[in-house]
């Protein structure tokens, strides 16, 4: 029998690290967090834009706040509606948006999604390494972690790969490739947690197994290639719904289920 491993044969590597997306995965930050902060920045600068819940859903096609504003100006407005100096103002406008967003988070208004804190605590207890790979600004990650898990939680994550640290944002795989390189781990030794089509394109580009928890903005996205698609991570007293994939008889996502999902699909 030929025992040589080929690219197409499945082989399980030991799972060593969990890599988390932030927006939509750890917390439902988009509709009531980022969107609100963008609108506050637009008001502050008197540019007369307002992003409704619906419009913002369309704008999520583009990741990155600066990129999203540029996309809106180019694709949603007539040239006449765009202030002449807008393009050069975008970094300043984005800094104002980050200020509004972090202020909003500091009020504790945006909680973590069900099961996130429990899974992170269990992963730490069991010795899994943790990282973050996100399109948002580092300040925003710090604000979310500080005001949900506490300031000490920043140090639980070995790598916080965020924002402009790589030039090409999701759906490019660069942010995950960066996190893997910083941790000196192969993709087969890690599993990613995402919520969106742009997110899974990024993880798949980096060859990572991926667990998806959908939200209102992403429930109709294409998650081909995911290890499982869930409506939430769930809690012992709050069962998840399996959208696609096999959770055996589990009713919430714990490390044993993560391990099982990783073993089923890991490739090297
Ligand atoms: C998050 C994003 C970000 C935030 C805004 O995507 O798309 O653009 O909406 O963040 P992901 P900034 O969850 O895939 O990382 O304004 O700080 O860029
Ligand atoms: Mg996301």
Provide keyphrases for this structure.
7 strands; 7-stranded mixed β-sheet; alpha/beta; disordered N terminus; about 270 residues; binds magnesium ion; 9 helices; binds xylulose-1,5-bisphosphate
Could you characterize the architecture of this molecule?
- The protein is of the alpha/beta class and 268 residues long.
- Helix content is 40%, strand content 11%.
- The protein contains nine helices and seven strands; from the N terminus they run βαααααβαβαβαβββα.
- It has helices at 29-44, 53-59, 65-75, 86-106, 116-125, 138-148, 174-183, 197-205, 255-265, and strands at 17-20, 129-134, 159-162, 190-194, 209-213, 228-230, 242-244.
- The protein has a seven-stranded mixed sheet with strand order 3-2-1-4-5-6-7, sandwiched between helices.
- Helix 8 links the parallel strand 4 (190-194) and strand 5 (209-213).
- Helix 1 packs across helix 4 (86-106), helix 3 crosses helix 4 (86-106) and helix 4 runs parallel beside helix 6.
- The protein is globular and about 55 Å long.
- 40% of the residues are buried.
- Bound molecules: xylulose-1,5-bisphosphate and magnesium ion.
- Magnesium ion binds at residues 21, 23-25, 195-196, 199.
Helix/sheet category = alpha/beta
Strand order of the largest sheet: 3-2-1-4-5-6-7
Euclidean distance between termini CA atoms: 20 Å
Number of helices: 9
- Tell me the helix content: 25-40%
Could you spell the SSE succession in H and E letters? EHHHHHEHEHEHEEEH
Low-confidence stretches: 1-10
Radius of gyration equals 19 Å
Bound molecules: xylulose-1,5-bisphosphate, magnesium ion
Mean pLDDT reading: 94
Can you tell me the overall shape?
Answer: globular
* Number of E-state strands: 7
């Amino acid at each position: 029998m030929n025992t040589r491993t080929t690219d197409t044969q499945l082989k399980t590597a030991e799972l060593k690290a969990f890599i988390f997306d932030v927006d939509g995965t750890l917390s439902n930050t988009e509709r009531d967090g980022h969107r609100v902060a963008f609108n506050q920045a637009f008001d502050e600068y008197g540019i007369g834009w307002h992003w409704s819940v619906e419009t913002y859903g369309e704008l999520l096609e583009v990741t990155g706040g600066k990129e999203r504003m540029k996309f809106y100006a180019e694709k949603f407005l007539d040239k006449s509606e765009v202030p002449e100096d807008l393009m050069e103002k975008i970094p300043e406008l984005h800094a104002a948006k980050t200020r509004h967003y972090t202020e909003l988070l500091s009020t504790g208004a945006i909680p973590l999604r069900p099961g996130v804190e429990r899974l992170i605590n269990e992963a730490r207890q069991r010795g899994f390494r943790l990282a973050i790979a996100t399109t948002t600004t580092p300040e925003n990650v710090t604000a979310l972690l500080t005001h949900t898990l506490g300031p000490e939680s920043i140090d639980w994550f070995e790598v916080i790969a965020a924002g402009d640290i790589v030039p090409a944002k999701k759906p490019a795989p660069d942010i995950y490739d960066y996190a893997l390189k910083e941790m000196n781990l192969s993709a087969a030794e890690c599993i990613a947690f995402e919520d969106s089509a742009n997110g899974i394109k990024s993880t798949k580009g980096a060859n990572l197994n991926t667990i998806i928890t959908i939200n209102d903005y992403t429930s109709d996205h294409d998650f081909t290639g995911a290890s499982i698609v869930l409506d939430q991570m769930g809690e012992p007293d709050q069962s998840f719904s399996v959208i696609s994939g096999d959770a055996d008889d589990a009713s919430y996502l714990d490390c044993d289920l993560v391990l099982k999902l990783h073993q089923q699909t890991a490739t090297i």
